[in-house]
Amino acid sequence: MRIKLAEDLGGGILSATSADDLHEALLRSAREMGFGHFALSLEIGSGGDAGTSVLIHNYPSSWADVYVGFNLGASDPIRRAAERSLLGFRWDDVPTLIPVSDLEQAMFDTSRRHGIADGYTVPRHLPGEVTASCSFVTGPLTELPVSMLLIAELIGAFAIAGARRIAGWAPSSDRPKLTDRQRDCVLWAARGKSDWEISRILGISHDTVTTHVKEARDRYDAHKRSSLILWALFDGLISFADIFRWRENA
Amino acid sequence: MRIKLAEDLGGGILSATSADDLHEALLRSAREMGFGHFALSLEIGSGGDAGTSVLIHNYPSSWADVYVGFNLGASDPIRRAAERSLLGFRWDDVPTLIPVSDLEQAMFDTSRRHGIADGYTVPRHLPGEVTASCSFVTGPLTELPVSMLLIAELIGAFAIAGARRIAGWAPSSDRPKLTDRQRDCVLWAARGKSDWEISRILGISHDTVTTHVKEARDRYDAHKRSSLILWALFDGLISFADIFRWRENA
DNA sequence: TCGCCCATACCCAGAAATGGGGAGGCGACC
DNA sequence: GGTCGCCTCCCCATTTCTGGGTATGGGCGA
């Protein structure tokens, strides 16, 4: 049973406590599914300078050297496709997801000569936190194990979750607790309301709102309204959906 | 075979061409897996306030009325947890993901009286494009079908992808582009620095920083520094790691 | 060469946030 | 009964942000 396989391998991946463990578990998983290679990349910091935080793979070193040496990651079509897809995708479907330039097509051909031919990539994102992908790859002489792609989807997701945990994004433990009223005020502040506007919304006085916000700042040791909002967001006290989409139900 | 079930149901979901089709396919899938209810919510759009949203569910109307009527969606803990998780999660694990207030706990109890007791929620995100979740729910008299959770993970993801396709797939995000200097300023602002402090850090004048921040606000159509930061964060222009981790290296 | 964008710098006036202080009422808990 | 946390309200002074201007110089592509 394939799903049993996923449960077994997934358990092994989720119980990994180090990058080496994860490498081991991923290698076994890839083999069991009929893939020769795998590559997991997890970035904390999608913006500019914060580079790749985790990169675990068993690509041939010849290809890895070329890839890193020529900084191909900067314009890797697989990576670009991963940023635009919710589901895992087969590499031969990439052109339907994004435009692929001639240069990038040439890159595919080169990788094939290094034993990286066809594959399946599982993307996963958390806005503001993580962008990651996990690829399972076959060489030029092996067929893509189509019957295993759904399993790969699960295993890839487990691997990414495991890597995130290992990379240090354990749920924060001793987070400050805000009172309900404080949280209300933080939420409305995150929605861009001023203290005065919040006071009208909540039906309390301007000074009371100011007090709530002040005390919330104190609890988070944040000296700025923005910092308070960011910490609350980071802690999961409020969410992007809370902030951006409250209009819908209003 | 459970994985066969996933393939069958997944095919049905991916071939849906309308919201009604999708409703039908999801209903069948939920039943096959042993769930009584399902709810799929998907929101598209990043910049400003434009955006479509899809909500497909078969919750009892009594509960849906309460939910919408009291605007509970504005701070739904399930939705908040969905923004903090890469994988699907069981509802009884939510307190380990995010803080849950007493009020929200009470909300759980209320929903249970409406036949919404336990569930499994699959989140999926594309920064700046899509935020979605798909929940499968059991009533108070039914056990959560634990053996089906991995299948639910796959079905939920398919459903989200299907909904995205139906909702009109707006990949060409017209998200605002900031200049390098503007991004610098936004990043330092997110780190809690005032304009004057940023000017010292970047070695430029106070007024120049103010101008950069001002123009960044204009591009995001954000009237508050906080809103600007939040949009930049949601868009992936900056990340929590950028914001909170800079101390480490400094 | 002209136009456009970018970075830089400056000015102003009004609104908002920050960081202090104090105080009363109310319910829970010991 | 006393203490503690929470919510409410008020005062103050100072800093910071917001929303308008204007202007110079450099680079880059039409």
Layout of helices and strands:
2 copies of one chain form a homodimer.
Chain A: H1 2-14, H2 19-33, E1 37-44, E2 52-57, H3 61-69, H4 77-82, E3 89-90, H5 94-97, H6 102-113, E4 118-126, E5 130-138, H7 149-166, H8 180-190, H9 195-202, H10 206-220, H11 225-235, H12 240-244
Helix pairs in contact in A: 1-2, 1-7, 2-7, 8-10, 8-11, 9-10, 10-11
Chain B binds a DNA duplex (30 and 30 nucleotides) through helix 8 and helix 10.
Would you write up a description of this structure?
The structure is a homodimer of 250-residue chains. Chain A has 12 helices and 5 strands. The model of chain A is unreliable at 46-50 (pLDDT under 50). The first copy, chain A, folds into 2 domains: 2-166, Transcription factor LuxR-like, autoinducer-binding domain (Beta-Lactamase, 2-Layer Sandwich), CATH 3.30.450; 180-244, Arc Repressor Mutant, subunit A (Orthogonal Bundle), CATH 1.10.10.10. By secondary structure, chain A is α+β, with helices and mostly antiparallel strands. In chain A, α9 (195-202) crosses α10. Chain A has a 5-stranded antiparallel sheet with strand order 2-1-5-4-3. The first copy, chain A, has helices at residues 2-14, 19-33, 61-69, 77-82, 94-97, 102-113, 149-166, 180-190, 195-202, 206-220, 225-235, 240-244; strands at residues 37-44, 52-57, 89-90, 118-126, 130-138. The structure holds a DNA duplex (30 and 30 nucleotides).
